[in-house]
Design brief:
The structure holds two protein chains of two kinds. Helices cover 0% and strands 50% of the residues of chain A. Chain A is mainly beta. By secondary structure, chain B is mainly beta. In chain B, β7 and β8 form a beta hairpin. The chains are: A mainly beta, B mainly beta. At the A-B interface, β4, β5, β9 and β10 of A face β5 and β10 of B.
Chain lengths: 111, 113
């Protein structure tokens, strides 16, 4: 998906380590989102950003922080990784109520 | 508050058979409704969306969905399944003034030769 780029694609961490997931978009969309996907639970919203400089908590924000660096970039940080944060993380963008466009995901395993 | 229920976590059909994936929603305001498809190791792709225009919505790859307010449903159908339709499908609900979508838990479609 050339519009939304996530890095890295895969990552293995040890409990307690920190890392930042990166997301960049070239769609000129105002809104950006971070979701996590777990088996049988669909996608759950972690944080979202309606515009540059603003962020809001979603359904499952505990253990995460975000930064909307500019209009293009929205990063997700795990300060002290826990096994419960093993998941597939998706970044998405939208223009107001237009459908969200997704990146290909970051597969994160925490041992 | 909004929620989405997808009935059946796994659906199996024969190639050429009708595909029916069920989605029921709850929303206190007029909803926007979406169907997405996810192929293995990929992100979600939009199949179709309902945004209060025509109740029968046509999407990509021959899929369509009908919004039925009285039944609070938005079921996804395709007349004839193809092997390439095997994937996971997600229904989602949004609304004006609420920027994030609420997703269902997904239905994995298997197509048998």
């Amino acid at each position: 998906n050339a519009g939304v780029t996530q890095t890295p694609k895969f990552q293995v961490l040890k409990t307690g380590q920190s890392m930042t997931l990166q997301c960049a978009q070239d769609m000129n969309h105002n809104s950006m989102y971070w979701y996590r996907q777990d088996p049988g639970m669909g996608l759950r919203l972690i944080y979202y950003s309606a515009s540059e400089g603003t962020t809001d908590k979603g359904e499952v924000p505990n253990g995460y922080n975000v930064s909307r660096l500019n209009k293009r970039e929205f990063s997700l940080r795990l300060e002290s990784a826990a096994p419960s944060q093993t998941s597939v993380y998706f970044c998405a963008t939208s223009r107001d109520n237009q459908p969200q466009h997704f990146g290909d995901g970051t597969r994160l395993s925490i041992l | 508050a909004q929620s989405v229920t997808q009935l059946g976590s796994h659906v199996s059909v024969s190639e050429g058979a009708l595909v029916l994936l069920r989605c029921n929603y709850s929303s206190s305001v007029p909803p926007y409704l979406f169907w997405y498809v996810q192929y293995p190791n990929q992100g979600l792709q939009l199949l179709l969306k309902y945004t209060s225009a025509a109740t029968l919505v046509k999407g990509i790859n021959g899929f369509e969905a009908e919004f039925k307010k009285s039944e609070t449903s938005f079921h996804l159908t395709k007349p004839s399944a193809h092997m390439s339709d095997a994937a996971e499908y997600f229904c989602a609900v949004g609304s004006t003034g609420r920027r994030a979508l609420t997703f269902g838990s997904g239905t994995r479609l298997q197509v048998q030769p």
